[in-house]
Amino acid sequence: MPTLNWIGKDKVINHHNEVPYRMLERKYSYENGKGTIEDNGSRNMIIHGDNLEALKALLPKYEGKVKCVYIDPPYNTAKSSEKNKAWVYSDNMDDPVILKWLGNTVGDEGEDLSRHDKWLCMIYPRLRLIQKLLSNEGIAFISIDDNECANLRIVCDEIFGKQNFVSQLIWKTDGNFDNQAKIKNVHEYILCYTKMPNILGLPKGIDPASTETSKIYNDEIRNTVVKNGPKNPMSLIELPAGFPCAESSLYIKKRRDAFPYYYDDAIIEDGKLKNNVMVESGWASKNILVNFRKKR
After folding, report:
1. Which of 28, 96, 105, 184 stands 20 to 30 A from 114 (CA)?
2. Side by side, which strands form the sheet with 277-282?
3. Which fold has domain 9-199?
4. How far is the C-alpha of 37 from the C-alpha of 150, rounded, in Å?
5. pTM over 0.85
6. Structural domain spans, the chain
7. For residue range 143-190, what is the model confidence (pLDDT) as tens digits?
8. DSSP conformation letters of 66-88
9. Are 185 and 77 in contact, with CB atoms under 8 Å apart?
């Protein structure tokens, strides 16, 4: 898998382990719109402090237990941008190069040649801690725009695992529709990662925009073997005797002149295959077919 290298990466790969554990000190509870001295027993927390130390402080109690994480890191955009706020590199570690960055405002593109290195050094240990906090069924959302989206995607693939990438959501922002730019940039991104994408499951709600004819209302959804072809990678699948068929009675001779290829005659009686059949095609949903076959 491709990886990304930058100035300081070798120093931040394990920096999350070097961050000291801090005790969270309760200051007050918040109830009915007011802060109160008495502890109301709520497990909810608003933590004031350095976010790297806050994440590390949560680790002893919440490692592997957090079901949802959303972070909105600095986008590392030019300070001339209306939305952007200048940010200062603040992670102290024993490295001459990084120590020079400490406490200094990150400069604009062309002005600060190490601005992307600084951003990557800042985000990396935080992502490592988030990955540790995330439960197996948990999911992480990370807001970003074009300035660091490509870098963030590669780093997240490295930390969470490329196979755990769920989606790169596009968020249509208000933007400035009245400007005269050649291309109007009115969207940002939300990267979505999990630990075990196979157990995410389906949403319990249904998009209200879905029509009554949508297949999501069907009790059963079928993908036929004829809905496949050479546009997908070709592979062999064995359909076992007893495999269900929509037709109650059918006889398909072995063939190599049309998709899918049949390497055996297929005999269907009472809606089921009577014999094992080797079939080759570019499957549109191979994993679904394989998992379905295993359950037969």
Report:
1. 184
2. 234-239, 277-282, 261-262
3. Rossmann fold (3.40.50)
4. 46
5. no
6. 9-199, 225-295
7. 999 999 999 999 999 999 999 999 999 998 876 666 666 777 788 999
8. EEEEEE-------TTSSS----B
9. no
